[in-house]
Design brief:
The complex is a heterodimer of chains A (112) and B (116). With 112 residues, chain A is mainly β. In chain A, 0% of the residues lie in helices and 58% in strands. In chain B, strand 7 (65-71) and strand 8 (74-79) form a beta hairpin. The chains are: A mainly beta (112), B mainly beta (116).
Chain lengths: 112, 116
């Protein structure tokens, strides 16, 4: 199937690290994405990782990719209240075109 | 600051009425996506256009929904007749199809539709 799975909710205290996990299905995905959706807004690309990488760091964000287990994670260091949002994992699936499949989203709540 | 724009931002209508949602993709982008987001179903792809041609509308209920791109600067999604179960937030996104990170989709702010 084309299911991308994520846990639906995560709650952390301000200043702690958040880790959002995702499992995907297509081992041939060339890119994997993390999108962020703030309340009342559309999705916004947060970061992406190329499939031949196992880690990518971008300021407070660290993406880890385990291709063998088809597992992707997003770590947010020093989580702030402004990080409260829904985070979507997405993979590319080869159909008649490169179709992006989004996960259900993980709602991150940051407790002050 | 290039953005995808969508109109209207909010729409309340009665069951049976026609609803038209509009999207202006980012200038120069050649792909347009329509998504529907609900609490129960999450984000569902309704339609995908590349160079104004519909490539995937498998997620769209054909009996009442239709999507078009009259020109490169306008995409429309119509529901006729609307039903209460169509209540959702409808997102338009645009991008460039090149097989790389630039396949990033840029989302509009969404149209929140309520059908009474």
């Amino acid at each position: 199937g084309e299911d991308v799975e994520q846990s639906l909710f995560l709650s952390v205290r301000e200043g702690d690290s958040s880790v959002i996990n995702c499992t995907y299905t297509d081992s041939s995905s060339t890119y994997l994405y993390w999108y962020k959706q703030e309340p009342g807004a559309g999705l916004q690309l947060l970061t992406y990782i190329f499939s031949n990488m196992d880690m990518k760091q971008d300021q407070r964000l660290t993406v880890l990719l385990n291709k063998k287990d088809k597992h992707l994670s997003l770590r947010i260091a020093d989580t702030q209240t402004g990080d409260s949002a829904i985070y979507f994992c997405a993979e590319i699936v080869k159909t008649s075109y490169d179709k992006v499949i989004f996960g259900p989203g993980t709602s991150l709540s940051v407790i002050p | 600051d290039a953005r995808v724009t969508q109109t209207p931002r909010h729409k309340v209508t009665e069951m049976g009425q026609e609803v038209t949602m509009r999207c202006q993709p980012i200038l120069g982008h050649n792909t347009v996506f329509w998504y529907r987001q609900t609490m129960m179903q999450g984000l569902e792809l309704l339609a995908y256009f590349r160079n104004r041609a519909p490539l995937d509308d498998s997620g769209m209920p054909k009996d009442r929904f239709s999507a078009e791109m009259p020109d490169a600067t306008l995409a429309t999604l119509k529901i006729q007749p609307s039903e209460p179960r169509d209540s959702a937030v409808y997102f338009c996104a645009s991008g460039l199809a090149s097989g790389g990170p630039s396949d990033t989709q840029y989302f509009g702010p969404g149209t929140r539709l309520t059908v009474l």
